[in-house]
Design brief:
It is a single chain. Helix 9 (about 265-270) crosses helix 12. The protein contains 13 helices and 13 strands. The strands form two sheets. The chain has a seven-stranded parallel β-sheet with strand order 3-2-1-4-5-6-7. A six-stranded parallel β-sheet has the order 10-9-8-11-12-13, with helices on both faces. It has two domains: about 5-160 and about 330-340, Rossmann fold, CATH 3.40.50.2000; about 170-330, Rossmann fold, CATH 3.40.50. It has about 350 residues and is α/β, with parallel strands linked by helices. The chain has helices at about 25-35, 50-55, 75-80, 115-125, 140-145, 190-200, 215-225, 240-245, 265-270, 280-285, 295-310, 310-325, 330-340, and strands spanning about 5-10, 40-45, 60-65, 85, 100-105, 130-135, 155, 180-185, 205-210, 230-235, 250, 275-280, 290-295. It is globular, with a radius of gyration of 21 Å.
């Protein structure tokens, strides 16, 4: 007889319940988790976040429920029937005896969060029902460990992952139209102005994908200065496919101190193009020591121009992106999850 699959209930309980058309990176990883492990576990999701629910409800063999924050308590008995409970934040009103906490943001990087995190540590992280606290990068783990917020014996890193890696990198010789792409939310913390300013007085074609509070500001700047080399595309369906078909180089500009991983950076690496990143610890973990990093706008501009004009550098970095991305392939990460949650 086949071995009976264990059941996991994921609780993603946010204080708000809205109708945003798209999910954020936090919720995207929950969708990817369901897809990654649905054949190995019976997975259910209880969430207050409608965009997440809308994605998960379409995954075959995964159950999902949309509710309000104040009503999550009504699902306690159902959750306790599961073998495993997975929380994306620990501060909830009850625990399953076999609870795992998945930390998807670097909350400990902000001094303003420390008092709340100390309460998390006292009330939640040391709770005997919490078996493991899972971080998506060693950078985040170290932030929590260095401030004594989590017990070391409960701490573990399981990185984010990608579904596939292209077999061959993009070749410089095959580029007909050199184009730089950026993909993120249009907010100041994501550093979009770095790339905007680096290419504004050049002929380098650059496309920005995403929406956010700063989108109108960027659009006004583009129109005011008649920056014809810059295009603001807004939301693009199947953005990674678009990158694959259009990007020569990907630039990751985030300056967000809570940046957990940089999934879009990894996704760009997986299609075999050179990637340039802001010099922050999380992107150094993803892109690795041989990656291209900038500290100033001038450095970013120089790196882009070098990739545009140097065939050997371009091909070397495209190949490196693929090789580095293979470390984060889903098959490697799936094994890590199965070894940890029991």
């Amino acid at each position: 007889m086949p071995k009976k699959k264990k059941s996991i209930t994921i609780l993603e309980a946010r204080y708000y319940h809205n109708d945003n058309p798209t999910i954020d990176g936090h919720a995207k990883m929950i969708v990817k988790f369901c897809e990654l492990l649905k054949n190995d576990f019976n997975i259910s999701l209880i969430t207050t976040f409608k965009p997440l629910y809308n994605e998960v409800k379409n995954i075959e063999d995964v159950d999902s429920v949309l509710t309000k924050y104040e009503d999550v308590k009504d699902f306690k008995d159902i959750i306790l029937e599961s073998d495993i409970m997975l929380l994306t934040k620990p501060d909830y009103i009850f625990y399953h005896p076999n609870t795992y906490v998945w930390i998807l943001a670097n909350y400990a990087s902000l001094e303003s969060n420390m008092e709340a995190l100390k309460q998390w540590s006292i009330k939640y992280f040391n709770h005997p029902y919490i078996k493991k606290i899972i971080f998506v990068s060693p950078v985040i783990e170290e932030s929590f460990l260095s401030t004594n917020l989590v017990p070391k014996e409960k701490s573990i890193v399981i990185p984010n992952w990608i579904e596939s890696v292209k077999k061959k990198p993009k070749k410089y010789e095959d580029i007909k139209d050199f184009k730089v792409l950026w993909l993120s939310r249009f907010i100041a913390e994501k550093g979009w102005e770095d790339l905007f300013n680096a290419v504004r007085n050049t002929d380098i074609k650059t496309e920005f994908i995403g929406y956010g509070d700063d989108f109108e500001k960027a659009l006004e700047l583009k129109n005011k200065e008649q920056l014809n080399n810059i295009e603001l595309l807004g939301f693009v369906e199947n953005a990674i496919d678009y990158l694959n078909n259009n990007a020569s180089v990907y630039v990751f500009t985030s300056k967000d101190p809570t940046e957990s991983f940089g999934l879009s950076l990894l996704e760009a690496m997986s299609i075999g193009i050179p990637c340039i990143s802001s010099n922050i610890p999380t992107s150094r973990y993803v892109l690795g020591d041989k990656g291209l990093f900038y500290n100033t706008i001038d450095e970013l501009k120089v790196l882009i121009l070098e990739l545009k004009n140097n065939k050997d550098l371009y091909n070397e970095q495209a190949k490196y992106s693929l090789e580095r991305a293979k470390l984060f392939h889903k098959d490697n990460i799936k094994k890590m999850w199965k070894d940890v949650i029991r």
